UniProtKB/TrEMBL annotation, chains A, B:
Substrate binds at K119, R268, N269. Keywords: NAD, Oxidoreductase. One of its GO terms (molecular function) is glycerol-3-phosphate dehydrogenase (NAD+) activity. The active site is at K204. This is Glycerol-3-phosphate dehydrogenase [NAD(+)]. Residues 193-340 form the Glycerol-3-phosphate dehydrogenase NAD-dependent C-terminal domain. The gene is LOC100798509. GO terms for biological process: carbohydrate metabolic process; glycerol-3-phosphate catabolic process; glycerol-3-phosphate metabolic process. Belongs to the NAD-dependent glycerol-3-phosphate dehydrogenase family.
Length: 356, 356
C-alpha cells in the first residue's frame, strides 16, 4: 500500500492534494489518507490555518471555495507529515526546497519515491540545477517531475486539462504517479525525460516575457505566434545542449507546447512585460513588478538573467537570439522593439538549427 | 535570370506580390518585373481593376492602402501573364486551381518551377489530394509550397512574421524560393517535406474549430492549450499515416505550431465555432456561416468532414478522438461540451501515441 504526503499547501499544492485525494480513496493500492504539510499561519480570525483546513476541508487562504476531500489531513509538522509516507509530492516555492531537504534528510522511509511540481529550477554558471536532482541528492530518493499547462484555479474547477510526468528510468514509479494524479478532467502522460520536462517548466517563462513585449507593442497574432515558435525552438535547443538525452517529443507534450501557450496568453510574466513595452522600456521591471505583483519577483526575468550567464560563460549566446534579446531588453540595454529584430540574427539562428 | 509570375491577386496574393517585388528589384538573379494575373473585375467607378493596379500600384479592392511596388504588373490574360515566367506562384482560391491548370497545360516554359500558397487541399476517400501534386501532375512541373502563420494584412504592414517552404528533393529550387520571399520582416525557412507542410495548412482549421468550441464554452486558457496540443499531435499522426516521409520537425516550424496558434487565436473558423458553442449547438453551422461570413463556407468544417470520411474508410477513426469529436459536434451528433471529453477516448488516444 502506498501512502502519499503533499509537501506544500499553496494554491497549486492544494489543487494537487484535491486531485490525489480523489484517487487514493478510489484506488485500492493507496492509503485513503493524504497528509498535506502546511506552513502554519494564523488567520485574521485568530484560528490556525491547519485547524480550519481540517475542520472545513478547505484551504480558506490559498484555495477558498474548493473542497479538498475529507481524506486530506493538514499537518503543521513537516517531519511528522512525511514519516509514514512513501510517496512525497513536493510543491513549495522553490527557494524553500533546500531548507526542506535539509530538514528531511535521513527522516524519510527508504522506499520513498518523490515527485516535484515546482517550476523554477535554477540555472547556474555551470549549467542548470534541477530541483529533482537536488531532491535526489539530498534525500537519496528517486524523483520524477509533473509539469504542464496547469492554471491551478481552472483545475480546481475541474476544467479539462493535461499534465506530463517526466521520469528517469523507473517506469513503474512513473505509472504509479500517473495513476495518482490522473482524473477524467486531468489527463496525465508519462515520458522518460525528467530533464526535458523540468526545463520546459522554467524556460517557458523567458518566452512569456518575449510574448508580453509583442503584446505591448501591439504587433498582432502573427508576430506573437512567430516569437512563441522561436522560443519553443530555443527551449528545445537549450535543453538538448545540456542533456543530450532530452527528447523532441517532450516539447509536443503538455509541459511543452501547451504550457507555453497558456503562459504566453495569460500569466504574470506576460502581463508585466506587456506593461514594460507599453512604457517604451522607460520604467524598469523592478518598479512595474512592485506595482503589479505586490513585491513578488518575475520568474521569467530572473531565468533570462541566469540563462544569459550560463550561455555567455560557454560562449553560446549567439545561438539563442530570442533568449539573448529578452535579457538585453529586460535590463534596458535594448528597446522592446528589438524582440522582433530576431531576423538580424538569422545566420546565427541558422547555426542553432543545424545543431538540432 | 528568373522571371516570376504570381497567379492570383486576392488579399494574400497581393501581399505575396509585394514581398516578391521588393526582392526581384534588389537581387540580380531575378528579372525586376513581377507579373500578377488578375481575375478582371469592373470597379464601382467603372474602371477595370487591372488598370487601377497598374496606374496606382495598389490593389484597391483586395489590399487597399498598400503599395505593391512599381515593378508589379497586373495582367488580366492568364496565358499571357505566365508565358515568359519560369517561376510560378499559385495563390488563388483552391476551387479555381483545377480550371487554371487545364488552361495552362502545355503553355508554360519547360524550365518552370511552381510554388503553391493555397491552403485548402482536399482529403478524398482514398487519402489527401495535395494541391502541389495536382499542379505537378497537370503541368508537369516541380511544385513546392509556402505555408505559415501568415495573416496577410499584418505582413502587408511589415510586421515581423515567418513562413515555411516545403520542398521535394530540389533543394536548389527551394533556396531560390526562400531568396524570393525572405525579407527582414518575413523570415522564410525551407524544409524537405512538401506533404507535411501542406497538410499543416489544411488540418489546423479542424483544430481551430475545436479551439472555438472551448472559447464558446468559456473553459479558459488551460483547456484551450490542451485542445490545441492534442490537435497538433493528431495533425502530425494523420500526416505521418499517409506520408511516412513527413518529419516531426516540420510541426515545430511556422507552418506547424505557429500557424496553429494564430489560427486558434483569431480567424473565422475559431469565431464561428465559438458562436456555435455559445448557442449550445442549437443553431446549425450553415446558418451561422451565412450570417457571419456572407455565404463563405468554413474550411475547418469541410475538412473535418473530409477527414472523417477518409478515417472511417480506413477504420482509423478511433485513433483521432479530437478530429472525430469536431466532426460529430459540427454535424450536431454530439453537444459542444463533448470536445473536452477526449479523456473518455484516452486508451484509444494511447494507441495513436504508440504509433508515433
Amino acid at each position: 500500500m502506498f501512502k502519499v504526503t503533499v509537501v506544500g499547501s499553496g494554491n497549486w499544492g492544494s489543487v494537487a492534494a484535491k486531485l490525489i485525494a480523489s484517487n487514493t480513496i478510489r484506488l485500492a493500492s493507496f492509503h485513503d489518507e493524504v497528509r498535506m504539510w502546511v506552513f502554519e499561519e494564523k488567520l485574521p480570525s485568530g484560528e490556525k490555518l491547519t485547524d480550519v483546513i481540517n475542520k472545513t476541508n478547505e484551504n480558506v487562504k490559498y484555495l477558498p471555495g474548493i473542497k479538498l476531500g475529507k481524506n486530506v489531513v493538514a499537518d503543521p509538522e513537516l517531519e511528522n507529515a512525511v514519516k509514514d509516507a512513501n510517496m512525497l509530492v513536493f510543491v513549495t516555492p522553490h527557494q524553500f526546497m533546500e531548507g526542506i531537504c535539509k530538514r528531511l534528510a535521513g527522516k524519510i522511509r527508504s522506499d520513498t519515491e518523490g515527485i516535484s511540481l515546482i517550476k523554477g529550477m535554477e540555472v547556474k554558471k555551470e549549467g542548470p540545477t534541477m530541483i529533482s536532482t537536488l531532491i535526489t541528492k539530498q534525500l537519496g530518493i528517486n524523483c520524477s517531475v509533473l509539469m504542464g499547462a496547469n492554471i491551478a484555479n481552472e483545475i480546481a474547477l475541474e476544467k479539462f486539462s493535461e499534465a506530463t510526468v517526466g521520469y528517469n528510468q523507473n517506469k513503474l514509479a512513473a505509472e504509479r504517479w500517473v495513476e495518482l494524479f490522473n482524473t477524467p478532467y486531468f489527463n496525465v502522460t508519462a515520458v522518460e525525460d525528467v530533464e526535458g520536462v523540468e526545463l520546459c517548466g522554467t524556460l517557458k517563462n523567458v518566452v512569456a516575457i518575449a510574448a508580453g513585449f509583442v503584446d505591448g507593442l501591439e504587433m498582432g497574432n502573427n508576430t506573437k505566434a512567430a516569437i512563441m515558435r522561436i522560443g519553443l525552438k530555443e527551449m528545445r535547443a537549450f535543453s538538448k545542449m545540456w542533456f543530450p538525452s532530452v527528447k523532441d517529443n517532450t516539447f509536443f507534450e503538455s509541459c511543452g507546447v501547451a504550457d507555453l501557450i497558456t503562459t504566453c496568453m495569460g500569466g504574470r510574466n506576460r502581463k508585466v512585460a506587456d506593461a514594460y513595452a507599453r512604457n517604451g522600456g522607460k520604467r524598469p521591471f523592478d518598479e512595474l513588478e512592485a506595482e503589479m505583483l505586490q513585491g513578488q519577483k518575475l520568474q521569467g526575468v530572473l531565468t533570462a538573467q541566469e540563462v544569459h550567464e550560463v550561455l555567455s560563460h560557454r560562449g553560446w549566446l549567439h545561438m539563442f537570439p530570442l533568449f539573448s534579446a529578452v535579457h538585453a531588453i529586460s535590463t534596458g540595454r535594448l528597446p522592446p522593439s528589438a524582440i522582433v529584430k530576431i531576423s538580424d540574427l538569422k545566420p546565427r539562428h541558422g547555426q542553432l538549427q543545424s545543431m538540432l
